[in-house]
Amino acid sequence: MIIDGHAHSCGEFFEGQEIIAKLDELKVDKVVLFPGVKNEPGQYNYIPGLAKIFSNKDMLFSANKLIKFLAKVQQYEDLMVRNEYVYFLYLKYSDRIIQFFWADPNANNLEADLHEKHHSWGFKGVKLHQCTHSFECDSNGFNIVANFARDKKIPVLIHLRSPGDVAKFINIAVKYPAVNFIIAHLIGLELFIKHQAILDNLYFDISPAPLISSKRICLAIDKFGADKIILGSDTPFGKDNLSKNLQKVNELNVSGYERELIKGGNLQRILKL
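Structure tokens predicted for Amidohydrolase-related domain-containing protein (273 residues):
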């Protein structure tokens, strides 16, 4: 099974039929879908291919500065409305779309919303993003999400903000060994490597193609193993992300079994598909 483990319901993935057409074109079975920045079509593939120039560098720490700025100046629809739209798409294509619930740890009704929507929607995981919702990994909101994920046996995908936040997260992740955390975009990989012996509950998403080099993917595999790496595209943020990352994985110097784990086997296991 091939699964795109990281995509958003906007841009070229706003309309359900366009999502399915792209999955069919690339022979991808399923996609993990989060809310988009807006519930609308449009072009978002403006990310430059910096991974080719800075193949050893974690480009996401720099990209996060722009993401934080945009989060402050742009007006977004209510997050719950955007989550509801992902559920709408899931209902239409439940055999192909896997819903993750994007949570704001600062929300007043966070715990109640998580339980209510999980009961109603049955989402398969939770997403957190420190650049769009500024929170600390030792905050009450984060603990609510981690405890919820532990109790429901679902993973948490987190987009970390800075090296300092990675350090704080490492301490927290150790306290939740029963929770599978997916680190978006290989953020902080080199810092995580220093503590790999105590971090058995981490997985790493290799999106988006323009910012993640094959060299850093290989480093992640070498240090954590292919059974901890997850294919992702971050569609629509980058042009032909899913195709490019599939090609990267297919060209890795790993066994066929390891390649299948990365392309979908790992997610199939932790999501119990």
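The longest helix spans residues 256-270.
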